[in-house]
Design a protein that fits this description.
The protein is an alpha/beta fold. The chain is built from 22 helices and eight strands. The chain is globular and about 65 Å long.
Length: 449
């Protein structure tokens, strides 16, 4: 008799994406049916995202009321609602390995997405949305950026984008920066390298597309915090997109190309004893989990995985090494803090919350629930309304404490939450909360200009 659920932490198998059987639709459908039948009998994940309600509706509304009665052509409806947050695997599912049922819902969804991509069933608009380095070509050219940002904010252009690119006209979209982070980043001061028991004493910053092209202020805030703590840093000499947007599409060949572009540069910093910091959780997760699971035999990928840190994971480890300054100058009042999905699944604990609690006269209310944004999912026509439905409870919870700041390590989630707070009249009219990335909050608390 099978035991009911795991007592052990979930473990991850390698993604066997180079095996020809990986792309067999017949074998995929057999595995989908097996997994969907387990999910149908459990239903523990019904509130996580729209994949599970979609599945259960398909089951409940067919004559058999079982998975066997669902048309296999409809399985893709479940797959299309999965945005690879990984929360079902890491926080909810009782049947993940080492349980004998060996259930990996997100990676099975990824397999289905990869087959869909191979069949040419992913549209040009979705491919373009996932091409962050292509978008980034516009960043850093002030006249061009100002024109694009202005045009993209008009009702007419948003209607055009909805019809041509499938971008919901009501979804928040990031602006391009007039100066890229990598162009404007200040050089590190010449600090002495102080290695700790847990932490390297020098940092290599992997900028990420979003910080480099859209909100360079996040990168400048990180630099200020590192300088204040006398931690020397460099910017990674060359970098491309981490590959997460392509992974979410199932374009695994493009993920492999990103890996081949990034790992040879990043591994040099790992070998030289740098801590590699990435300020966007999805990018950090790619190097900590997804790329290593795709390339299990690559020694360089393993070295980069071991050297990659979330910024607050690193800062709290520095504190445990006795090397973090806590000379905060400004209290921040009430902070409503959201832990993004791709931060939670790194298994590092609540390191950002732990840091923010060091700030005197500051209270933290933490929300651990998906915002619904999930990369490009939250801006797509047909998904944006569902993204808001998923995230509305998060917005309500974060607004309930009448905070001075709302914050998330994922700035996209932060903007999505802020949009929902405004649309649902959850904003304190007399004193609306400011949206600020946790690194900005750290900079403010330190009193750094």
């Amino acid at each position: 008799m099978s035991r009911e659920g795991n007592l052990e932490a979930p473990t991850r198998h390698a993604l066997d994406w180079q095996n020809p059987d990986f792309y067999s639709e017949e074998k995929l459908n057999h595995e989908l049916e097996r997994i969907f039948d387990i999910c149908h009998g459990c239903r523990r994940c019904v509130s996580l995202c729209n994949s599970f309600p979609t599945l259960f509706d398909l089951v409940d509304n067919n004559p058999t009321m079982e998975v066997e009665g669902v048309d296999k052509k409809d399985f893709i409806k479940v797959v299309d609602q999965c945005y690879m947050c990984d929360l079902c695997y890491m926080t909810k599912c009782p049947y993940t390995p080492p349980h004998e049922w060996n259930l990996d819902f997100p990676h099975t969804m990824l397999r289905a997405k990869a087959i869909k991509f191979k069949k040419g069933e992913v549209g040009f608009n979705e491919k373009l949305l996932a091409s962050t380095d292509v978008h980034g070509q516009f960043a850093g050219i002030p006249i061009v950026v100002q024109a694009i940002n202005a045009i993209n904010s008009t009702k007419l252009m948003r209607n055009v984008m909805e019809k041509t690119l499938g971008v919901d006209k009501d979804a928040w979209l990031p602006s391009f920066a007039t100066q890229k982070f990598r162009t404007g980043a200040a050089n590190s001061e010449d600090f002495l390298v102080k290695d700790g028991e847990r932490t390297p004493g020098k940092v290599a910053i992997y900028s990420t597309c979003y910080v480099n092209y859209n909100e360079p202020g996040i990168g400048h805030d990180l630099i200020k915090v590192l300088n204040h703590n006398e931690i020397p840093y460099v910017l990674v000499d060359k970098e491309q997109c981490c590959g997460m947007p392509k992974l979410e599409l199932g374009d695994l060949d493009s993920v492999a190309k990103s890996k081949e572009a990034n790992i040879p540069h990043l591994v040099e910093y790992a070998k030289e004893g740098f801590a590699i910091l990435s300020a966007i959780p999805s990018c950090t997760l790619m190097f900590k989990q997804e790329i290593p699971l795709m390339f299990t035999d690559c020694a360089d990928t393993k070295l980069v995985q071991e050297a990659m840190w979330d910024p607050f994971e690193y800062l709290i480890a520095r504190r445990k090494d006795g090397l973090l300054k806590t000379d905060f100058k400004r209290p921040l009042g009430k902070i409503s803090y959201h832990i993004p999905c791709h931060g939670r699944v790194q298994n590092i604990g609540k390191k950002t919350e732990e840091f923010l609690k060091l700030i005197p006269e500051t209270t933290i209310s933490t929300t651990e629930r998906c915002s619904g944004h999930a990369g490009t999912y939250g801006v797509k026509l047909g998904h944006h309304q569902m993204a808001k439905k998923i995230g509305k409870p998060v917005a309500k919870q974060m607004a309930s404490s009448a905070p001075n700041y709302i914050s998330s390590d994922c700035q996209l989630a932060g903007h999505h939450i802020a949009q929902m707070m405004n649309e649902n009249n959850l904003v304190n009219a007399e004193k609306p909360a400011d949206l600020a990335h946790p690194l900005r909050l750290a900079r403010i608390a330190y009193g750094l200009e």
